[in-house]
Amino acid sequence: MITVKSITSRVLPTLLLAVIITIPSVALADMCQPEAESNAALLLLPKEKIKNIFTTVQYGSAPGIVTSVDGWVSFNDCKGNLVFKFGRTCQLLDTYTTGSCNVVGVKNY
Predict the structure, then answer these.
(1) Which is higher by pLDDT, 102 or 65?
(2) d(Cα 78, Cα 13) in Å, to the nearest integer?
């Protein structure tokens, strides 16, 4: 028997996924900007060391499908970056530094 509840329970998740998939990539990167800034603040980095903080989107193998967002912190005193890897809903997945930049408690590649 088909009911409104059974239709809703099948259709609603698909509709929500469609909305998430079709969010423009720039909007998705902008959505994660506050998380990048707050995660940088949690590491107690001196403001004078930070050159800038920005986010970029990462695409998967399917054209136009964003798989994740990277938050980048560049510094005034080293070559490299602090990177925050976020999922599509801006949940933090990983944190690391690159190059000669080091942050206490954060792995470096």
Answers:
(1) 102
(2) 45
Helix (H, G, I), strand (E, B) or coil at 108: strand
**Does 21 or 96 have the greater pLDDT score?**
96
pTM: 0.73
Q: Hey, what CATH class is 24-108 in?
A: alpha beta
Identity of the highest mean pLDDT range in 13-22, 35-44, 61-70: 35-44
Q: What are the structure tokens assigned to 39, written together?
A: 């995660």
DSSP one-letter string for the chain: ---HHHHHHHHHHHHHHHHHHTS-HHHHHHHHHHHHHHHHHHTT--GGGEEEEEEEEEE-SSTT-EEEEEEEEEESSSSSEEEEEE-TT--EEEEEE-TT---TT-EE-
